[in-house]
Design a protein that fits this description.
Elements: H1 7-20, E1 25-29, E2 38-43, E3 48-56, E4 63-72, H2 73-86, E5 91-96
Parallel strand pairs: 2-5
Antiparallel strand pairs: 1-5, 2-3, 3-4
């Protein structure tokens, strides 16, 4: 059984990885430091966006990032606002990448 990272630690580590890859990213909503869930918004700078959420696969026990919403950036922002109203402990990170890079598919980021 592995120790679970705090949300704050995971967010700081993720932002550091993005910065090292020259991918602009910002924390737009700070959640609970220890156990807040994290949403990642990818803005492709063309009016479109995708919103990712960590999910738990009940069959394999693995964690993976899944698309929660995608489409016009305003619609994705509305989805974030809705999620934040129901969970004020939620973290939201916004990434700006025309190429659609999030690094979420890299080893270790689903944990």
């Amino acid at each position: 059984m592995s120790a679970r990272l705090t949300a704050d630690f995971w967010v700081r580590a993720y932002l550091t990885r993005l910065q090292a890859a020259h991918i602009p990213a910002y924390v737009v909503a700070r959640g609970d430091v220890t156990a807040g869930a994290v949403l990642v918004k990818l803005a492709t700078l063309d009016g479109q966006a995708r919103l990712f959420q960590r999910s738990f696969d009940l069959m394999t026990g693995a964690r993976a990032w899944v698309v929660l919403a995608e489409g016009a950036e305003a619609e994705v922002d509305a989805s974030i606002a809705h999620q934040r109203r129901s969970d004020p402990d939620l973290w939201v990170i916004e990434i700006e990448s025309r190429e659609g890079r999030t690094l979420l598919d890299e080893e270790g980021l689903a944990d």
